[in-house]
């Protein structure tokens, strides 16, 4: 039986919305917080909301958020006795977890061994197979290019090239035609090398028309391991999730029971403790395969929170303290429906190109059934140093259709100006018949969705309103330009200009 | 003031008089057009209330309304005349600029190459993603100022494409 | 059995947060909406969020939001077939309700007769007494000043002077000492005359140390009348509610059962249909008295929504359509706890003086368990024409203490700049031991709470931080002032100034 | 630059050198002070992160921090000398201004009346509420410019009170 420890102060080794999310949980628990920040983040919301904030270096992650020693030093210096890693950065770094524990601090996460095993795709496959978990056919890691191409032929195209160290779609490429294999392999290795410092990849069978469905696991030090039901994450682009929901419109009680048992078996294969996620692919015939385990808090955890009533971050802290977790049973009957849209600084009209800049106007949606997890505000700067997700918009409803209607409403309310973002993408997605019907797979966005065509075309009134607005805009701009006085006129009345300038300063 | 505004290949004659009254193709419209913040506007027209994001670039006025993008060209009389003299409306530029600071990973084209609209001409790494920058037009690569491994700033010109001779 | 009618478009005869709240419900139901607006409200959020918006006149309520004919005309003109009145303005105007019905529109509210009876304090007392509802001893309406003073002596001081047409604390005065009676009476009559065009008042016994507790009623056209449990509204200042919670820390199951039955009996006494609220006073010995019935949606309805899961505005629309309401049973076991803080543009450091101005910065709290119902945004103007409530902050928790911790957190996150507001009041209230212990009555804020004293005094570190901040602020301001160039220097380089001015304009 | 800053009757000597380094009563402090928006500031000092609203009026710098108001007076050397010569710090003004537009309902004082700090001198109706404006000091009513029934604008001077002769 583990000892219960106190957490007197907690350091969050992260930034952005997830740092704010963890801060909020600590506030709700009455635990004082320490934020860490880079040069680019002095004005960031997590720094503003934390009780203490420690500067840890330059804007690039390698200069700050990835510096293990500096972060541990920040905890020591402020008297923090626990570290929550969020997701990304050092969250799945077993060495860091070990270092935290060796320094006598509480690590809010699973054991370094569980992180290491699940972080290595091959070790993970070996571990879960021992517990009877089904896998997608694939190769081991460490093969040379020639062996990989041979294996790909053996598995049969289409195949997926995946980075051994990967996550979040980086270093991942689908190959449908054998002739594209060499080029895709090179790109995947390059991306993996650049993102993780490790260019090793492996190949596995690509399931066509399959869904990405994952199970939320919670496990405490008292031997309890449960699942909180599934999340549907098939709305992806280039293997990056864009929309998640809970429950999945595809999962019935029987499939939930079977997959849930499998997910628990997978977690138990590494004696998992704390919150984690079992990612699976599910084909049209409801065959399911273990993809990987994410040994951390997941971006999309809020949809599970809204349909289970469990505050997953609070439970993480509770579990890390050695206490029994609050929920004790698998969630077989989620309450209502929740949908999350990831709000990214990416231009859906320009191939989802990331956008940087300063947010000059922001109206955040609220009201019944709406939650926003965000790390930005009007006045904050989106820099090129970190990933492009700036907020998560989550809605809840009694039914899937109520959750969708609320999401449409919330998206219409959400106003973010100053940079390009993907809210228009989400608005169009929520109007797409396939999405409304829940008929999606992981290729839906890339192959069956477009920002240029609408199932419900604009009315002539819409077109006319756009024309009028564009014309008035151009007209005003032209008038404004004609009012700009030329240099000769300016000299006449210096004083007027000065007073005008002074008025501007106020 | 008379304008011809083009949307989806269709032309609308819009007239705005000194009092701000508007006619569209000769019919009067009751329009209340208000700036809420830079680029953000509210229109109430015949009681319909709509919020719009409006921006312009290279002669195109982009209107984003209810999650949909409307690309328009607004021409006053002089611009219309000039466009007609040029023989066409809205030929777009073949410049490929860096949309954000980043690292050039690859430049898969060379000067003199024929490229199609939408073809990748530069791969730029930024925000931990590899972004493929595409040619905005069909044409021939005129200049290549970017090279692999180079760090670039926002708006740096990377490649220019000129339309093919006709 | 009533016919079910369709609502194809709904007009909201209101402004501010409640107009936004009703708009959101319509959006969630897929019903197109029409807003109405005055000169002052062209940029208001309810105008921005509605599908259609009709201009109805000048900024003063009498010139716009109180113009019955113009509002009904706006509905006709836009093809709206239903009107929701929100609260305030015409919400409890029986003539307006009748006019709406006579025009063949759906009135989202109770019958004109129920409004009329409950709107007249004396008729209301007569009606509910017939159903055995207990009343506070008091006088009838229409008495002259001399008769009122005589009656006051008979009832026994302290007494309360109340406007017959009143609501929201206007035209209401507590009198503890007989010698103050005449002056308070004059003030109450003057306020009532100015607020409601009716200076008639009555006198009733003032219960000392009593709580304000109210029950939410829902009743449909199918004969069902239920309650959704109680709200505790004792945190008031000058009879204006500032904080509400559900459930009440004072109400046990037995009291809830008894008061709930009484509330249903009161509603049934006027054959009430739609949402309404029975306001009661409850003394220390759990004796309870009917105060009045509010025949409309209540400002504080969200706390009930959060602990019952019922969307009251959606139910109002459902009921108005003649459909049976969704909840069919009294709510005897609220789920968790909810607290609402009214965010008012009032300066708690200057006797709660209302404040006007433009909001230049706003960060809205969000995350788990937080809801904000607001009608303002950064850039919107708070004018003197309407009441000072600009938003409602509502938090939910499994327990009262979790809801309070979340409220503290949300208040700390809430940033509104550009005018004075009462968030500092709420922060201090949430730290007050009496509030934390739930030991409050309707006089708590005025008699036992202060913004100048803290139960937990500032640390020397806090004091020093304040001193450093103040000094740096003054220092910078001084430096800035010394940089303003004199007129002689300006002439030298006109061009520099122009380019500077042009930069400012961007 | 040397300042004396007064809070709750206590004086703090604060020195800010040209590089922005700060000492309080002679002890060095590590302070990162940043404006987030007009009136809104962030301080990180010895790792403590605090948000503050700062405003000034009539020589008082008001700092609102974690829901608490700290009223300070910041005096540079000249101001300190002058204040000491005057024989006291921070005597406040007796002007009663309209805090917002409204309608004067009553003026329950006359010129020459002795009033106490906190005594109501004007009743102003605004935002549907009757607001009692109080005298900020003990003293004698010097001028009354407001009268019942009058509409007033924000910051209009309504009543002035002067301190009693000593």
Describe this entry's structure for a reader.
The complex is a heterotetramer, with 2 copies of chain A (506 residues) and 2 copies of chain B (166 residues). Chain A has 506 residues and is of the alpha+beta class. Chain A is 38% helix and 23% strand. Chain A has helices at 16-29, 45-49, 68-78, 94-102, 112-119, 121-130, 145-155, 181-196, 253-268, 301-308, 312-320, 400-413, 423-430, 433-436, 444-448, 460-483, 487-492, 494-505; strands spanning 10-12, 33-38, 52-57, 82-84, 106-107, 159-163, 173-175, 201-205, 211-219, 225-237, 240-246, 274-282, 288-294, 337-344, 346-347, 353-354, 357-358, 361-363, 370-374, 381-382, 389-397, 415-417. In chain A, the strands form 6 sheets. Chain A has an 8-stranded antiparallel beta sheet with strand order 13-12-9-10-11-14-21-19, with helices on both faces. A 5-stranded parallel beta sheet of chain A has the order 3-2-1-4-5. In chain A, strands 7-6-8 form a 3-stranded antiparallel beta sheet. The longest helix of chain A has 24 residues, at 460-483. The radius of gyration of chain A is 25 Å and the shape is globular. The model of chain A is unreliable at 485-506 (pLDDT under 50). Chain B has a 9-stranded antiparallel beta sheet with strand order 4-3-2-1-9-8-7-6-5. The model of chain B has no long low-confidence stretch (mean pLDDT 85). In chain B, a hairpin with a 2-residue loop joins strand 3 and strand 4. By secondary structure, chain B is mainly beta. Chain A binds chain D through residues 34-35, 42-43, 47-48, 50-55, 77-78, 379, and chain D through 32, 34, 36-37, 42, 44, 47-49, 51.
